[in-house]
Design brief:
Layout lengths: L29 E5 L3 H11 L6 H13 L8 H4 L7 E5 L2 H13 L6 E5 L8 H11 L4 E6 L6 H8 L5 E5 L4 H44 L2
Parallel strand pairs: 1-2, 1-3, 3-4, 4-5
Helix pairs in contact: 4-5
Length: about 220
């Protein structure tokens, strides 16, 4: 992986680890949008915002209840649509995004997913910003959102390395595509986090057992 030299470049984390969550039992749903176009922020936020129940929705629900009231298969579980909510923040420049990502991680509330623009003049572009973020938080899922071919695929791989945490969508994007990416990638991050915590717990347990055995052997 290649990196630009300079005083504004973060130190490479030689032992990458997922930062601990402040609330271990919660599903981390934090998403960051980084784009210099405020309309893009509004579009993504609108797509990912929970559906608000309208008066018409309530009327249709009442009609369904009356129509299927005698059907034993139509119960509360059948008609209930799960509400998916996200905590969404906005950054408008690359350096601002890096600062927000570092602050969130230090506070125990890291971002699971970043929607990242490529062109963000006059500051860092999206590829450089992702490079800097992954130096500190390599487990962050990233979706590059762009209307331009600023980088070829080979150039992006050369700068960011082969990584299964990087996806691309082009503007104008499809709302269903954004919803699927948000759900799948936040779930992927949380699954990886749980797996790491379980592994750490097993390693601690093995370490304690080895220490206890060592003390026992020394006492014989």
């Amino acid at each position: 992986m290649t990196h630009e030299a300079g005083s504004d470049v973060s130190t490479v984390n030689t032992e990458p680890q997922m930062h601990l969550l402040q609330n271990e039992n919660s599903f981390n749903n934090r998403i960051l949008i980084c784009d210099d176009n405020r309309d893009i922020h509004k579009d993504i936020q609108k797509i990912l915002a929970p559906i608000q129940q309208t008066e018409l929705d309530n009327e249709l629900r009442n009609f369904e209840d009356a129509l299927f009231s005698d059907d034993p298969t139509f119960n509360e579980k059948t008609k209930k649509v799960p509400e998916i909510t996200y905590r969404i923040d906005s950054a408008f420049q690359g350096k601002q995004a890096l600062e927000m990502v570092e602050k969130a991680a230090d506070e125990g509330e890291p971002y699971t997913l970043i929607f990242m623009d490529v062109r963000m003049p006059p500051g860092w572009d999206g590829i450089r910003t992702v490079d800097q973020i992954w130096r500190r938080l390599p487990f962050t899922e990233v979706v590059i959102v762009t209307a331009y071919s600023d980088y070829t695929w080979d150039e992006m791989v050369d700068k960011l390395g082969v990584n299964d945490k990087l996806l691309f969508i082009k503007k104008p994007f499809d709302s269903l595509e954004v919803k699927q990416l948000a759900l799948n990638l936040t779930t992927k991050w949380n699954t990886a986090y749980r797996a790491q915590r379980q592994l750490e717990s097993l390693e601690d347990d093995v370490r304690r057992r080895v220490d206890a055995l060592t003390k026992t052997l020394h006492g014989m």
